[in-house]
Write a structure and sequence with these properties.
- Helix content is 66%, strand content 10%.
- It has 406 residues and is of the alpha+beta class.
- The protein folds into 3 domains: 157 residues, no CATH class; 61 residues; 142 residues, 2-Layer Sandwich (Heat Shock Protein 90), CATH 3.30.565.
- Strands 2-4-5-7-6 form a 5-stranded mixed sheet, covered by helices on one side. The protein has a two-stranded antiparallel sheet with strand order 1-3.
- Helix 2 packs antiparallel against helix 3, helix 2 packs parallel to helix 4 and helix 4 runs antiparallel to helix 5.
Length: 406
């Protein structure tokens, strides 16, 4: 083997050995090993105390009764501590070791009065009894502590489960409340639809007469056409409400007239032009020509942009700012509507899409909820984004299902 190969092999072997030692050193500091080492040190410490007391007994003359009595009482400390730390086995073991260390002291009394000798011998029995009784109490206390710990954990689990069930119950009650509101709203909508349908026919007829009054190219003809189109859209919505309330289902599968997305946005802004001018709002609309071939259901998507832009108009101050930006994103496009109003609190960014939740006074809380449903029916999504400055930013993503950007 070449010298370089031997050096490389030795380096690998040393690396593996170093890593193995590193793992072993880490294992030494793991909790079970650490506790085991501490117990060993404590036992050695108690053993040294026992040996020290035994040596004091042996080297102290027998006539110094006060000192021997003190040593005997000190002997109970390692026994009791051993019983507390190590249980009944530890207490009995240290009592036995203390008794062995006490034997040299007993030898001093051999040949003397039996009563004195028996008095010293009784101390050994007391050592064993102290170690056994304290150890038994310690073990029972440890067992009770373990049972209390298990009981505490079970109580915590029960509390967490109860808390979760209470949370689910509150959510169920909220959903039930929303369902009841939706049911009441459905009944009210059906009643209103009946009342609105006849006036709509009159408005539509009047709009058709006005349309004949203004020839092609007349500046007011465009607004009459918008009035006629919006009347037709509202009439379609009323028919859907009536069909749904009669149990025949809505026209969710029925599509309205398709038109380019920029045309839908332009039509909505014309409808809101008066409200925008009343507040002297600065409206910024980016170039949307990239989406000229991106067709949408004009009736439904106009409702989405109408709801969002209306919210922005209500939120901004006089001479406020609203910007509408569009761009290609992934396999579709994204439209962002940003304003410099009071904004939406972080905690409310998910709740704004819940039915009947409104952050403005007098709001129904249905606009964004309906808009979300319409956008999701396209396979898209509507989210509250973080604006670059103060205010709110709502982003609408629509997938390109028809290959407009191919």
């Amino acid at each position: 083997m070449a010298r370089g190969e031997r050096r490389e092999a030795r380096g690998k072997w040393l690396g593996k050995r170093g890593r193995r030692r590193g793992v072993e050193s880490l294992n030494l500091f793991s909790k079970p090993v650490w506790k085991s080492n501490v117990k060993k040190l404590l036992f050695i410490f108690l053993l040294l105390i026992v040996i020290g007391i035994g040596l004091l007994h042996f080297f102290t003359p027998g006539y110094m009764i006060f000192y021997h009595d003190t040593y005997r009482r000190l002997s109970y400390f390692p026994i009791v501590l051993g019983a507390i730390w190590f249980g009944m086995r530890g207490g009995l073991l240290l009592a036995a070791l203390t008794s062995i260390a006490f034997i040299p002291h007993l030898l001093l009394y051999i040949g003397k009065e039996p009563q004195t000798y028996m008095s010293e011998l009784t101390e050994i029995i007391l050592y064993l009894m102290a170690g056994g009784v304290v150890g038994l109490i310690s073990e029972r206390e440890s067992k009770l502590r373990q049972e209390y710990k298990l009981l505490s954990e079970k109580l915590k689990e029960s509390y967490d489960r109860l808390h979760e069930e209470a949370k689910l119950l509150i959510e169920a009650e909220e959903q039930l409340s929303v369902s009841q509101k939706l049911s009441s709203l459905g009944e009210l909508s059906a009643s209103l639809a009946h009342e609105v349908k006849n006036p709509l026919s009159s408005i539509k007829g009047t709009a058709e007469i006005l349309l004949d009054e203004f020839p092609e190219g007349h500046p007011k003809r465009e607004f009459v056409e918008i009035l006629l189109a919006e009347t037709s859209r509202l009439n379609t919505t009323v028919n859907e409400v009536l069909r749904y309330s009669s149990g025949k289902g809505g026209n969710e599968g029925k599509k309205g007239e398709s038109e380019p997305l920029p045309k839908t946005i332009s039509r909505v802004l014309k409808l809101l032009d008066n409200r925008i001018r009343e507040k002297h709002i600065h409206l910024e609309l980016s170039d949307m020509s990239f989406a000229d071939n991106f067709f949408v259901d004009g009736d439904k998507m106009s409702q989405v942009f109408l709801n969002i832009v209306l919210n922005a108009i209500d939120a901004v101050p006089v001479e406020g700012r609203i910007s509408i930006d569009g761009k290609k994103e992934g396999e579709g496009l994204s439209i962002s509507i940003t304003d410099n109003g009071s904004g939406i609190l972080p905690d409310d960014r998910l709740r704004v899409f819940e039915p009947f939740y409104s952050g403005k006074e007098g709001g129904t809380g249905l606009g964004l909820s309906i808009s979300q449903k319409i956008v999701e029916s396209y396979g898209g999504k509507i989210t509250v984004s973080e604006p670059n400055s103060s205010g709110a930013c709502l982003s609408i993503y629509l997938p390109d299902k028809e290959g407009a950007f191919m």
